[in-house]
Structure formats: C-alpha cells, structure tokens
C-alpha cells in the first residue's frame, strides 16, 4: 500500500474509534447539546415578545425574533459541541493512550484527524437537531435560495472545523478532562456577547467593539444573511478569514503539542 493509502486507513480507524466512543457514551454530547436548545426556548418563549418589540417596534411579533436568534443559536451549538472534543483529547492524554499511539506504526496525524473529523460530524448532527427544534417552534427560511443554503452549510462546516482544531489544542494542553472543559468554556460564552441575541447597535458604545471584533459575530451575521436573504456585506469575508485563521492556529497548536516529547 502507498503511504497515502496507509494514512487514509489509519485516519479512518481513528475516526471509527472516536465515533464508537461518542455512541457508547452519549451523555456528554447530549448535555452539551442541551445548552443551546434551552437557550433557544428561553429566548423565544420568555423573552421573544419583549425582544421583538425592542428591535422592531410594537408591530413586531415573536416570529421576527425567532428568525433573528436561530442563526446565532446554530453557531453556538457548534461551540458547545466541540467542548466534547477537548474533553476527549484530554482524556486520551491523561490515560496514556496518546503515548501508546506514538509508539505504534501508524500515521502520526491520524490520531488528531480522527478526533477532528469525528467532532465536526457530531457538530453537524447537533446543528441539524437544533435546527429541527427551531423549525418546530416556527423558524422559516423562505427567502434563501439553493445556493445560499449550500453556502450556509459550507460556512457551518468550516466554522465547526476551526473551532474543533482550537478545542483539540485546548485538550492537548490541559492536564485533565475537567481543566479541558473549563478552558473550552469561552466557545460557549463568546456567542453570548456577540450579535446572536441582540444587534450590536443596541449595545452600549464601550461594549460594541468587544462584540464586533470576535469570530462569532461575522459568522452569525453571514449565516443570518444566507438563511434570511438579507445583506451580508463584508461579514462573509471576515467569517471565512476568522475560520481559516482559527483552523490554522488550532492545527499548529495541536500538532506542536502532539509532537512534543512527553515529560
């Protein structure tokens, strides 16, 4: 077999390993998935009418706010799901299986690739489940074309890949699973200070730069524009640039940690 075929085989084996772990121990994924679902229901049914009136005047109804908040919740779902990747990698490191893999005649990158691809697939599945909940409570995307739907899926996949590499780096750098879970918490908290739940213009002036200059806001605005047929502007380029930059940073961080000689 060629070196490429061997690498693909090893990556597939590691991917199956991680998917089996996720299937055998679904509680972590379900617990992480519960956060965006609960926030979606909370903001729609508890704050929906008030938020709609505040954003569009007294003539607005809850359906307007559902359309606004769902894109942010979908990307928040990715941030929540990839925490599982950080915990899984950290567990492998602390239990010694990574050290064992280093001594085996397998492609070195296959261990990380298995974690990353598995986490991306779980993130996409989680987005589909949360999207189904959103549709059930009234979200509709009637103005999006087939090309815009394809672009939205591509953005979600690219953003999931970027956040997964960052989460894997956090897991490699954490001494245990609890520390990995805590270090990855910003991936859930950042959407709360973005344009996910309220427009940036409605925030205090001193706080607006914090919301604007972070990866979630341009990604949310781009996804919102694609799903609702509204203007995207420069947010699309910013979202892609943030995603590629985070993916490269996470990959280099993870690879350097993996190749570092154990102490």
UniProtKB/TrEMBL annotation:
Record-annotated membrane-spanning stretches: 25-46, 66-90, 111-137, 149-172, 184-207, 234-253
InterPro entries in the record: ABC2_TM, ABC2_TM_bact-type, ABC_2_transport, Nod_factor_ABC_transporter
Keyword Lipid biosynthesis: no
Domain ABC transmembrane type-2: 27-261
Membrane topology recorded in Swiss-Prot or TrEMBL: Multi-pass membrane protein
Pfam families, A to Z: ABC2_membrane (PF01061)
Keywords recorded for this protein, A-Z: Antibiotic resistance, Cell membrane, Membrane, Transmembrane, Transmembrane helix, Transport
Main location: membrane
Compartment annotation: Cell membrane; Membrane
Family according to the record: Belongs to the ABC-2 integral membrane protein family.
Protein's recorded name: Transport permease protein
Naturally occurring in which organism (per UniProt): Streptomyces virginiae (Streptomyces cinnamonensis)
């Amino acid at each position: 077999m060629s070196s490429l075929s061997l690498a693909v085989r090893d990556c597939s084996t590691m991917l199956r390993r991680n998917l089996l772990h996720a299937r055998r121990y679904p509680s972590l994924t379900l617990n992480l998935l519960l956060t965006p679902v609960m926030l979606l229901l909370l903001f729609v049914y508890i704050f929906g009418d008030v938020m709609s009136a505040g954003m569009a005047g007294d003539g607005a109804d809850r359906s307007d706010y559902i359309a606004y908040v769902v894109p942010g919740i979908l990307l928040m779902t990715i941030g929540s799901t990839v925490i599982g990747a950080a915990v899984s990698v950290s567990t492998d490191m602390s239990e010694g299986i990574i050290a064992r893999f280093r001594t085996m005649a397998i492609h070195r990158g296959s261990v990380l690739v298995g974690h990353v691809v598995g986490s991306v697939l779980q993130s996409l599945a989680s987005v589909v489940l949360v999207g189904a909940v959103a549709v059930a409570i009234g979200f509709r995307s009637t103005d999006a074309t087939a090309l815009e739907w394809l672009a939205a899926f591509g953005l979600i996949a690219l953003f999931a890949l970027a956040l997964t590499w960052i989460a894997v780096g956090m897991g490699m750098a954490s001494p245990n699973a609890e520390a990995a879970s805590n270090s990855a918490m910003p991936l859930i908290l950042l959407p709360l200070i973005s344009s996910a739940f309220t427009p940036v213009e409605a925030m205090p002036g001193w706080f607006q730069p914090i919301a604007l200059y972070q990866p979630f806001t341009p990604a949310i605005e781009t996804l919102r524009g694609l799903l609702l047929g509204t203007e995207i502007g420069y947010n699309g380029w910013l979202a892609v640039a943030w995603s590629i930059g985070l993916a490269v940073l996470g990959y280099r961080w993870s690879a350097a940690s993996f190749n570092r000689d154990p102490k």
